[in-house]
Design a protein that fits this description.
Blueprint: E1 2-5, H1 11-23, E2 27-30, H2 42-47, E3 55-58, E4 61-64, H3 66-76, H4 87-117, H5 126-150, H6 160-174, H7 183-193, H8 196-201
Parallel strand pairs: 1-2
Antiparallel strand pairs: 1-3, 3-4
The structure holds glutathione.
């Protein structure tokens, strides 16, 4: 059976959990990281030398890095609708997965979410926050245009790119800051919220992560 190590409040764990639920994979999950700790223990570092979650174990496979986990699970469970085998169909999905992970996630998490939720107001770096908001105002219209044109981030069907990107939208739309008016992105997020797997595994309260005075 698939074993997942990681706390439910981690957006990277959430991406893996969302896919696991979409595919109906049997799993056991252990709370690791954050308030639960365990991720600096030698046994855990042997699975992921970065000491981060998620980590999965599946028979003889041990993996960290959420995007690698998504691809492994999609390949193993032959989820070719989400991640097709033909290179010409798969490549644009990989491209948008990486776009979202490399460009959107660090800005949203470290410049905006971290400042607004995980930093006491007295220590908030307003320049970093403003820079993050400006960067999101530049990045999100790119997703808006894709979704408006194709329906989903990487094309006319839901794919792993939507799992990678869509997971970030719960924080994007629920943390209070000045968001651009992007109707296709909003409608796409509303659609994601109606999926039971998204509601259960991504729309998870992050209040336990909020530091006093944030
Ligand atoms: N690039 C990694 C990042 C993993 C990561 O940064 N995980 C965070 C949680 S979102 C973590 O483990 N933080 C330490 C902790 O939870 O104690 C991935 O995509 O899996």
């Amino acid at each position: 059976m698939l074993t997942i190590y990681g706390r439910t409040t981690s957006s990277n764990v959430q991406a893996a959990m969302w896919l696991v639920a979409e595919l109906g994979i049997d799993f056991k999950r252990y709370d690791v990281g954050g308030e639960f700790g365990g991720n600096r223990e030698p046994q855990f570092l042997a699975k992921n030398p970065m000491g981060r979650v998620p980590v999965i174990e599946d028979k003889h496979v041990t993996l960290f890095e959420s995007q690698a986990i998504l691809r492994y699970l999609a390949a193993k469970h032959r989820a070719t609708d989400l991640w097709p085998e033909r290179p010409a169909q798969r490549a644009p999905i990989d491209q948008w997965m990486e776009w979202s992970k490399v460009n959107v996630a660090p800005v949203l998490i470290y410049k905006v979410f971290w400042q607004l939720v995980r930093t006491n107001k007295a220590y908030r770096d307003m320049d970093r926050l403003s820079e993050g908001i400006e960067e999101l105002q530049m990045l999100m219209p790119i997703a808006e245009a894709q979704i408006k044109r194709h329906g989903w981030l990487a094309g006319p069907k839901m794919s792993l790119a939507d799992i990678s990107f869509g997971t970030q939208l719960f924080r994007y739309f629920t943390v209070p800051f000045d968001r651009s008016d992007l109707p296709a992105l909003r409608a796409y997020y509303d659609r994601l919220c109606t999926r039971p797997a998204y509601a259960e595994h991504v729309m998870v309260s992050y209040e336990s992560l909020r530091v006093p005075g944030a």
